């Protein structure tokens, strides 16, 4: 055992290294994206493999792949278990396809080259307060996704995988029992709603989203055996949402929009719901000041992409108050999202 004292960097050196690490963050993102695209974690599922085997299986250059995996291993994703041989570690295990809570779909979305193009235009958002994506591709992000089916699939897969990560944490802290008809507004492929319906067999559901999204959800509902208890509906939540629900569920929806548009959605929900109904949001609730918070990074995603924002607890209360609701609960979960419940005033 070494008796050498641990090296303690002078504060100014440590501060410089932090800036360098942040400045090169796109390099790490690109490497992570490449590993996800090549399914390296899947290829290591049975144990360590030499780089020549990994490269041959992935159809890429051996030396280039080695340098990518060496970099990721230095950052804590994968492990070089012996010279030029790699294995999964706890972090890379989460990147395997099909495992519960897989991070692969989200890595493929957040580190997609599309994001790099948009973030290159961040100064547009800073100068105007408007989403950078509209400068990058000439239209709002959800309109662009409706046209680019390949990118839309990447996005929807990421949202479905994120739901699979968030849902158990939400079900652990919030009791959905007592709801007869639950309407999931902009519910994507239905992962959240299906999980709730499976836990509560007396409940019925409505999955509401754009038509091209619902098209991908229908086979999932059928496969889950929920078609008899869950109907689908398509439309524009800025115009109306399905009526008659006892509760209206939205996961990571209100954060997509500024206050004016969020109030339009909440107003449509208020008009559609049964008397005594409730709204249930799964959203980030930002921590104050300098506290680390993943939501503060996602807030920049909202700024540059749809034009929305993450909110503090006080900002949520003020938003609901303006929409004619009263917040009754904000419950943190083991995921990055909290459960926010509000009832009509």
Instruction: Give the strand order of the largest sheet, numbering strands 1, 2, ... along the chain.
Output: 6-5-4-7-8-10-9
Oligomer: single chain
- The figure for the number of domains is 2
The helix-and-strand class reads alpha/beta
Order of helices and strands: HHHEHHEEHHHHHHHEHEHEEHEHHEE
Largest sheet: 7 strands, mixed
CATH structural architecture of the largest domain: 3-Layer(aba) Sandwich
Tell me, what is the CATH class of the largest domain?
A: Alpha Beta
- How helical, in percent, are the residues? 40-55%
What do we call the CATH homologous superfamily of the largest domain?
A: Vaccinia Virus protein VP39
Which fold name fills CATH's third level, the topology of the largest domain?
Rossmann fold
Q: Please state the average pLDDT score.
A: 95
Radius of gyration: 22 Å
Question: How many helical stretches?
Answer: 17
* Strand residue percentage: 5-15%
Low-confidence segments: none
Count the strands?
Answer: 10
Description:
With 345 residues, the protein is α/β, with parallel strands linked by helices. It folds into two domains: 11-97, Winged helix-like DNA-binding domain superfamily/Winged helix DNA-binding domain (Arc Repressor Mutant, subunit A, Orthogonal Bundle); 160-344, Rossmann fold (3-Layer(aba) Sandwich), CATH 3.40.50.150. 49% of the residues lie in helices and 15% in strands. It has helices at 11-23, 25-37, 40-43, 51-58, 62-74, 90-93, 104-110, 113-119, 122-128, 133-137, 141-147, 149-173, 191-199, 211-223, 259-272, 294-304, 313-322, and strands at 49-50, 79-82, 85-87, 181-185, 204-209, 230-234, 247-251, 278-283, 325-332, 338-344. Strand 9 (325-332) and strand 10 form a beta hairpin. Helix 2 (25-37) packs across helix 7, helix 7 (104-110) crosses helix 12 (149-173) and helix 12 runs parallel beside helix 13 (191-199). The radius of gyration is 22 Å and the shape is globular. It starts with 10 loop residues before the first helix and ends with a strand. The mean pLDDT is 95.
């Amino acid at each position: 055992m070494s008796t050498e004292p641990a090296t303690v960097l002078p504060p100014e050196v440590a501060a410089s290294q932090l800036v360098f690490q942040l400045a090169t963050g796109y390099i790490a993102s690109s490497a992570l994206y490449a590993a996800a695209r090549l399914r390296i974690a899947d290829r290591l599922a049975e144990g360590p493999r030499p780089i020549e085997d990994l490269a041959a299986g992935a159809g890429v250059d051996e030396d280039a792949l080695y340098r990518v995996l060496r970099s990721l291993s230095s950052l804590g994703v994968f492990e070089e278990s012996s010279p030029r041989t790699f294995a999964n570690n706890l972090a890379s295990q989460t990147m395997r396809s099909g495992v519960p809570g897989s991070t692969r779909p989200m890595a493929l979305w957040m580190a997609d080259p599309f994001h790099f193009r948009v973030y290159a235009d961040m100064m547009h958002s800073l100068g105007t307060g408007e989403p950078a994506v509209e400068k990058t591709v000439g239209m709002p992000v959800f309109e662009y996704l409706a046209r680019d089916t390949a990118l839309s699939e990447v996005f929807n897969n990421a949202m479905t995988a994120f739901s699979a990560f968030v849902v158990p944490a939400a079900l652990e802290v919030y009791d959905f029992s007592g709801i007869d008809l639950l309407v999931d507004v902009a519910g994507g492929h239905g992962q959240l709603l299906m999980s709730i319906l499976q836990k509560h067999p007396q409940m019925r559901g409505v999955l509401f989203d754009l038509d091209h999204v619902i098209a991908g959800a229908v086979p999932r509902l059928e496969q889950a055996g929920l078609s008899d208890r869950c109907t689908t509906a398509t439309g524009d939540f800025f115009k109306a949402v399905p009526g008659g629900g006892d509760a209206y569920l939205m996961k990571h929806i209100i954060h997509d929009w500024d206050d004016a548009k969020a109030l339009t959605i909440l107003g449509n929900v208020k008009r559609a719901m049964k008397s005594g109904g409730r709204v249930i949001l799964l959203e980030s609730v930002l921590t104050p000041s300098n506290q680390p918070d993943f939501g503060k990074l996602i807030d920049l995603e909202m700024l540059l992409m749809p034009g929305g924002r993450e909110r503090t607890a006080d900002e949520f209360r003020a938003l609901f108050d303006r929409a004619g609701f009263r917040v009754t609960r904000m419950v943190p979960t083991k995921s990055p999202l909290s459960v926010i419940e509000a009832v009509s005033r």
